[in-house]
Amino acid sequence: MSRFWITLGTVAGVAGVGGALLYSRRASAASSALTPGPAQVPPAPALELAPLPKSSEVDGDLVTNWGDTPVDLRPLFMIMQTVSKIAGSARVFAVIAYRESRFVSSAHNGNATGEEDERDSSRAAYANNKDRNPPLRYGQQAAEFGSGGLFGLLAPYFLWTGVPEVGKKAPLLNAPPELMFQPRAAAFGAVVYMQRLLKAHRVDDIADIKAGWANPGLLGSGRGSPKYHDVRANFLGDAMTLGIDLTDRATVPEKLDASAWPGVLSVFSALVGALPKELA
Amino acid sequence: MTPDLTCYGDDIAALVDLAGDFDLRSPVDTRAWYVREWEAMGEALGFAHHLAAELASRRNAGDWSQATAEAGVSAFAAWLRQRNRAAQRVGVTDKHAAAQASVIAQMIDIGRARGELWRVTVDPTTLETGACYEDESGGWSRAFYPDTAPGYFGDGWSGPPPRAESRCGWQTPLVLHFGTFPWVYSSRLDAAGPGLRWSSESAAPAVDAFRVMASTLQPEVNLRQDARQVAAIYRHFRSQTAPLLARVPVFRPGQIRVGQLYRQSGYLRVHQGSLEVAALAGPRGHLPATAYNHIVRRFAAFFAVRRATVRALTTWAPEMARMVASSTDPCLRAQVEGVARAG
């Protein structure tokens, strides 16, 4: 397998002389999970979602056209496709995860030098949207969080996942941003985001999905801009590097279709289950 | 009576417990243990779906050690074919694969005769092909990597040098570790396992090597393997990985971080993340976490089968007891005598 193996410097007490723990990823790892919030917000309870699904728990082809996607993550991508009823989306999610996290679930863009732009983005996302969205219990932490998880979601948007569809019933409004490090929660955010892109934007082909992932504006006024083309080129390059053939019509249709989407709460129940009552 | 494996070293008892115990005389017990071991291997290497289908077609089997082995090899072969076809790429050329298949067949014979199939070391120039193949440029290349530098399974095999001149440049012995397939080399452990590349359009020597690995779970083949060799390789692996593992925290519920690598019950795990993207690095090179777990599990399973077989020998397979009587392994002879005395 061709992977990038980069020393993980932020895991204190693990890396050491003569040996190191390595992760193949570009972003820094989460420095802490479920960090306490400001004084007026109670610390988030420790959360433990169901583990990654195993091959035996999912239907679908986990061998064909996956390239170097980690074997133990393929069931998650496949279950995302199955639950969302967006045929062919599993391999697309794999390519997106490769770019956003290098398949490291605790990828965190925002807590290292040089990642201020991610924090700036999450601050802006929170500031610009908090008045028109339901309140987030951990809104301030989300604003300062940046982005992360397998799919590189911006923290405020992750916690508002489902608001356009179900309003105040959106399931993550009381959750801390660190929940996105749990693969099933990240997967929920990702499938909801993909269905929204497919339903609410002009998506001409598979690469357009990644353009919208980077910024939905690239599917509108930004279409054709240098940034639009860069994102698309990176996505197509990532697919080649990973070894996923996006033109293989047996596994990836020419265009993805979210018309069979079963609904936010149904998808949340199938992917994540129920959150503890203090967060629900 | 539970056979005492400490003859092979004080660390073997702890190792064998990682794989759990079972009673070969109990079909239910045997089925549960073998299915669990094979499912773990299928999940780790990626052929779990194929294995499930093969196991389902053998649900009425009588001998579960045999049935699971057949299912496992069939599933692996089908998975490898699909994997290569899907990727539209094969690991090696037909000529390369043919040479590899020939070499593996001869190494299996040599290993069997020595009672040392786990790791087979040969002078490549004594083999039919010389362990060489004609490459695409028309020149001669080595059929396998010359894995003789110090590594995780040994301190290297610099000699003796080949007795004859090699047309493809062999200057050291050829060493393959079948027992830990697909991680067959001591000093070149990558994420996928180098043995998985041993297949072409027309041949799949990887399946032959996989079959050898799988056979170590078969009671009779397991007994024929000199366990002292396996114990020595395990001890070397353990000594090389212990300093690296010491830096990995122990998994303690309530004190865990998502995405972090932990030690848990003798294996590595990434909490809520992919094990395949984690690795250890040390003076002996890169060691993917998936490789570590597979390798440890192979050692543990070998000794679990050995323990179960010796325990059941006199009543379950007396003909094997006669075979053991002539074994060169004094530990095995003593274990069987001990079990026989205990009745």
Walkthrough of the structure:
Chain A is mainly α. Chain A is built from ten helices and six strands, in the order E-E-E-H-H-E-H-H-E-E-H-H-H-H-H-H. Chain A has one domain (51-271). The longest helix of chain A is centred in the last third of the chain and has 18 residues, at 183-200. Chain B contains eleven helices and eight strands. Chain B has helices at residues 12-17, 27-45, 48-56, 64-87, 94-114, 205-215, 219-224, 227-245, 289-316, 318-325, 330-342, and strands at residues 119-122, 132-134, 140-142, 174-177, 261-264, 267-270, 278-282, 285-288. In chain B, the strands form four sheets. Chain B has a two-stranded antiparallel sheet. A two-stranded antiparallel ribbon of chain B has the order 2-3. In chain B, strands 5-6 form a two-stranded antiparallel sheet. In chain B, helix 4 runs antiparallel to helix 6 (205-215) and helix 5 (94-114) packs parallel to helix 6 (205-215). In chain B, 50% of the residues are buried. Strand 2 of chain A pairs antiparallel with strand 7 of chain B.
